[in-house]
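Changelog-adjacent note: as of this version, every example in the card shows the full chain rather than a window. The one below runs 415 residues end to end.
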Amino acid sequence: MWFQEKRSAWMLLSILWFIAFSGKLSRFVMAVFQVQIADDFHIARSLVAGAWSTNLLITAFCAPIGGMLVDKYGAKKVLILSSLFNIVGAAVVCLSSGPIWFYVGYGVISGFAGIGASTSYVLLFQWFKHHRGKATAILTSASSIGLAICTPIFVSNTWLTWQDAFLVTAVLGLITTLPLFIVAMRTPDETAKPSQAAANPADKTKKPKKQGVGLANFLKHPLLFIISLALFTCGFNMGTVEMNLVTIHQINEVSPAVIAFVMSLLGIMEITGVFAYGYVLDRMNKNMVMALLYTVRIAAFFVLFLHLSWSPHVFAILFGITYLSAIPGGLLIANDAFEEKGKATGILIMFHQAGGIIGALVSGIFYDMFGNYQMLLILNGALCVLVACGYYMTNKANFAKRKFTTSSARETSQA
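Full-length structure tokens:
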């Protein structure tokens, strides 16, 4: 039941959700106002896209750095620093008088806010014990709900500009985000009673130590390798869909009305799916749930590859229901397995960011080579096959290990 968690845990989640929701504004602006930004600065759209790519690249490199800072200095300090980067970056963009300052503000300074990319998940895993899947689902839904609310506001009020959106981002960060982090948010270490911490100092030595993690270690640890591949594949899938889904439908002569409908359907299924998987992750074997998720993605890309009259609708349902759940599921599994939680989460998010960047780049290369996106869809499906098999095999290996341990213990007791 929901009351199994502390009230302060749900309060923390509400703070993180609001911040993720407001943070979606700058992403929305870059997706919607590319033409206006390029016209205002008299630059090519490729330069606007370059700022986007630079932001993603810096965020990717900052994610593991932020994770290590969380392990060393705590989540609260890292979140405050990340918020400062966001506020300063948005302010520079809003006040920019030329393309160079726009690039510096959004592409570089806002990119350094990526040090907080893994921090929210680390905090949730610390606070929540019984409803981690639901908590991560609620937090992940903030981006989709933010997009759903921002879109009609800016579309219906044509007088709003991209400068207004960045100004709102900076002001919200200054008057809400920072005060919430500084005053309202408390980490588990800050709320724990000293007597509880000192009650039995030997407790930590009695608990089995979890695996450490490093960039080179993912090649040696099968589970970490699979999760890394899974999040890379998820980023690759998202890069493919976000950049090219509308174009794929247009190439196959799907009517604008149908495209508008299936994109709305995709958004609805995103929110539905993340809550459904969050509920299931709290109750079932996580490895098998993630194997099922990527199996559904295999079916989605196969349907899209066929380009039948019903393919856009079925793809929107199948891919949409898995769209936001791959990251929370992978991070939940990693949290259960590894000791350096901040560092592990940061490295895994870096793989996801790398997948998104490479997916966007490969899509253009494949289209130039083949004149369509069929090979891109095949590559997406093939990666999902590898991940689904990997999650299934690691689950079988873990089960065999548990079974062997149980049998050995029973034989020892009988002897």
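Structural remarks: Residues 226 and 390 are 6 Å apart (CA to CA).
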